[in-house]
């Protein structure tokens, strides 16, 4: 049982970190716009790029997790977030920042992978409650980002909105490497399925196989 709690703690921290990335930059878009000398239309891509990348990565990486193992997919997602945060923290221009946000969005795989690990590792009678708590963590993380952005930027600057998550996600990834158990089942790759996975109509099929 303690191992389950450790696994759930790591998954919750990973999901909360990704959820924070959705809303953390929203209140400081005007500051980023001024600092990187861009316009309003361009700076909104800091949000749009993240949303688009997350929308694509969530179903596709969920399917890939079934093939390479959910524990490995979780580490890949955390690595993408950490790399994206590092690139965003040092971004010299709005274009680099947008690319960094795309990398962060690839971490959307954390959600389906975390739910999959819960389904695999938890006793059946605990799965529903664990999924409910995880959903609450994700919702709380999204709201908390807006609250934390102001104090962080006020005390430091907007780049620390990426430095801090990078440090946290890196630590979570290290712990996950040793705590999250290997997936008991990994589905073999089938090349015939990939064309369907590359179009929106096939995403649900890819995730539900």
Automatic annotation (TrEMBL):
Known Pfam families for this protein?
Answer: MFS_1
Question: What is the annotated localization of this protein?
Answer: Cell membrane
Q: Which residues cross the membrane?
A: 43-61, 73-92, 98-118, 130-154, 160-180
Which InterPro entries does its entry note?
Answer: MFS (IPR011701), MFS_dom (IPR020846), MFS_trans_sf (IPR036259), Tet-R_TetA/multi-R_MdtG-like (IPR001958)
Give the record's membrane topology.
Multi-pass membrane protein
Main location, first listed in the record: membrane
Q: Which residues form the Major facilitator superfamily (MFS) profile domain?
A: 7-209
Keywords assigned by UniProt, alphabetized:
Membrane, Transmembrane, Transmembrane helix
* Entry-linked PANTHER family: COMD, MAJOR FACILITATOR SUPERFAMILY
The molecule here is called MFS transporter
Q: What is the lineage of its organism?
A: Bacteria, Bacillati, Actinomycetota, Actinomycetes, Micromonosporales
């Amino acid at each position: 049982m303690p191992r389950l709690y450790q696994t759930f703690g790591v998954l919750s921290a990973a999901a909360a970190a990704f959820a924070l990335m959705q809303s953390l930059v929203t209140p400081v878009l005007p500051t980023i716009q001024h600092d990187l000398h861009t316009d309003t239309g361009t700076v909104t891509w800091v949000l749009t790029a993240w949303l688009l990348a997350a929308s694509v990565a969530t179903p596709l990486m969920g399917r890939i997790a079934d093939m390479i193992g959910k524990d490995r997919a979780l580490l890949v997602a955390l690595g993408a977030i950490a790399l994206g945060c590092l690139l965003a923290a040092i971004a010299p221009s709005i274009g680099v920042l947008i690319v960094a946000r795309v990398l962060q969005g690839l971490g959307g795989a954390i959600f389906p992978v975390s739910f999959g690990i819960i389904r695999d590792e938890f006793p059946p009678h605990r799965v529903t409650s664990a999924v409910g708590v995880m959903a609450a963590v994700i919702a709380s993380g999204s709201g908390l980002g807006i609250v934390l952005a102001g104090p962080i930027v006020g005390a430091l600057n907007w780049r620390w909105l990426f430095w801090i998550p990078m440090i946290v996600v890196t630590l979570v990834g290290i712990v996950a490497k040793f705590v999250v158990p290997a997936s008991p089942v990994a589905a073999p790759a089938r090349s015939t399925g990939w064309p369907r996975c590359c179009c929106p109509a096939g995403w649900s099929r890819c995730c539900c196989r």
